[in-house]
Amino acid sequence: MRVVIQRVSEASVRISNNFTAQIGNGLLLLLGIETSDTEQDCDWLIKKIAALRIFPDEQGVMNRSLLEIQGEVLVVSQFTLHASTKKGNRPSYIKSARPEQAIPLYEYFKSSLQKEVQKPVQAGVFGANMQVALINDGPVTILIDSKSKE
Fold it and tell me: Which residue from 45, 7, 1 is spatially nearest to 141, judged by alpha carbons?
């Protein structure tokens, strides 16, 4: 499971020109699920994301977590995070989980994250053509892969 974490001052998702979700200060999470992912990958990522110290403290040092600032969260599914570009110029998505596997994990991720942060988690719509807008604060963008745990 891969997640691109972006610290944002605001972010939103539109589908067919209608706002589906939007947040203020917090994190935009682009979540890619691959065939080998499990609920354990979700659990590990959720703990890491909630405690990641990437928000500024009073001195402007990145020393506060999402939990500490009581920030908002927007989760967007993104199967293209598992694109393989090894051969040719057309990416392969063979490692990306099919919807029958990915949707339950996506739903599990959202509900478990909501429990962890103790507030509603906004989300895009799995498989929809979405327009994602954000103001990346910092900019701060971090990539985490549950398989490498770096």
Answer: 7
